[in-house]
Amino acid sequence: MLDNLLRRNRDWSARRNSEEPGYFARLATRQTPEFFWIGCSDSRVPANVVAGLDPGEVFVHRNVANVVHSADMNLLSALEFAVDALAIREIIVCGHYGCGGVKAATEDLPHGLADHWLEPIRRLARAYAVDLARCESTEARRDKLAELNVVEGVRRVAETPILQRAWARGAEISLHGLIYGLRDGLLRDLGCTVSHGKLEQEAAQ
Ligand code: CO
Fold first, then answer.
1. Could you report the per-residue pLDDT of 61-92, keeping only the tens digit for each?
2. Is 131 helix (H, G, I), strand (E, B) or coil?
3. pLDDT the model gives residue 201
4. Backbone angles phi, psi at 162, to 5 degrees
5. 185 CA to middle of ligand 1, Å?
6. Cα–Cα distance between 38 and 75 in angstroms, integer?
7. 8 CA to middle of ligand 1, Å?
8. What single DSSP character describes residue 37?
9. 143-167: per-residue pLDDT in tens?
10. What is the set of active-site residues?
């Protein structure tokens, strides 16, 4: 298995370098991505691939069910580096339909550590119980919850001192909430964009 992986890597490296001579040498000197992506660890939703971006174009943090925990040092370290060092312009929180983490958060089964990790999603499910009950199927309910988790994630990133400080010093950073469809490979904008610390809907009013 590993030999196969290493062989595929060598093929990819050679192909990439023949398409664009000096590609790796150039990329090695600096990275200047415009996007910071917070997504799910799910193997079917790789940020670069689904967004059609090359190496160097997106800085990535992924975790189970793309949860934004306000005290997650891993996420916050990546976020701070993206904002302060890389001067990222767009931050994307991306969830996906058919998310196993969201499903686990709706089940009455023990999942070990994941139950702690997914607690914010359980809280969302309780807060939006009336809306979620209107969904016509269990699958639709979970997909709606995946959307709510993205919107909540955008809000939480916006509330971090990292973003608040960046906006206060005039940095032009926008946050977007997207959801990816495993069945069609498409990203959808959930319309919860935040720019300069304000929701776009609020800014338009
Ligand atoms: Co997932």
1. 999 999 999 999 999 999 999 999 999 999 99
2. helix
3. 56
4. -60, -50
5. 14
6. 8
7. 26
8. E
9. 999 999 999 999 999 999 999 999 9
10. 40, 42, 44, 96, 99
CA-wise closest residue to 59 among 25, 28, 90: 90
Q: Which fold has domain 31-199?
A: Beta-carbonic Anhydrase; Chain A (3.40.1050)
The span from the CA of 58 to the CA of 49, in Å, is 11
Residue ranges per domain, the chain?
A: 1-30, 31-199
Structure tokens at 185: 């490979």
26 CA to middle of ligand 1, Å? Answer: 34
Show the tokens assigned to 49: 């691939």
How many angstroms is it from 133 CA to the middle of ligand 1?
22
pLDDT for residue 202 is more than 60: no
Say what the pTM is: 0.93
H or E segment at 139? helix 138-159
